[in-house]
């Protein structure tokens, strides 16, 4: 008889790992803005000075994180992606970046995990915005088993780290690494799959002679890994990202600055807004990042 394994959501892994780390790392301070605060009720009672819910005051939350970092603490800051990156962007720029202090930002909601909440809870622009600020590490796990090692490494450091959690997950985890992991080799071109789009990419390229690279860490971008992959294939590069289309195009251009190549980017539209609800899978189809859409487009591009 087969035993069905119950999978834990990424946010639950974040909660459990953070509670465990609060007990062992006195530097750690958790800041929430109502979102997910209920998961930390017991931890707040145990560590009242290090588990702080500021209410719906996201700009103040980042400012507080900057102050805590200046005093030697390691802030972990959590809320929905648009409230964590877009709403307090000036505070990210000044209170963390300009002060040159670190924090771990952990978001949920991704680009359109639950479209029924509307545009206010969607943030396909988050990674592109952070790209305008220096010194950020960006993790985009595609499976719940990738979350804990990425989070523990971020907590143990001192830099500015963004951990982008999603309800969308791949069927299997890929061992965490600092650069690209080669999952398949082929000669027609190179496909980069970032985080939770991997299953669609693998299905969509199943009949395409392509090299498939996977990344759960997309900043810093693995220039060396991409160059090595392109050296073994035709210089066609397709980047499939679970956020704004073309977010990593400038990184590909820098990596292959002296290598003639062709690039096609996949992700959320840049030139128009999808004013629709539906499901996350509906949005995948709309943006062409479902398996069928990728198979048709990448197949044609690599010919």
From TrEMBL:
Pfam family for this entry, one: Transket_pyr
An annotated Gene Ontology molecular function: magnesium ion binding
SMART domains in the record: Transket_pyr (SM00861)
Superkingdom classification of source: Bacteria
CDD domains registered for this protein in UniProt: TPP_PYR_DXS_TK_like (cd07033)
Residue ranges constituting the Transketolase-like pyrimidine-binding domain according to the UniProt record: 8-171
SUPFAM superfamilies: Thiamin diphosphate-binding fold (THDP-binding) (SSF52518), TK C-terminal domain-like (SSF52922)
Transmembrane segments: none
InterPro entries: PDH/Transketolase (IPR051157), THDP-binding (IPR029061), Transketo_C/PFOR_II (IPR009014), Transketolase-like_Pyr-bd (IPR005475)
The name this protein goes by in its record: Rif-Orf15B
Organism for this UniProt entry: Micromonospora okii
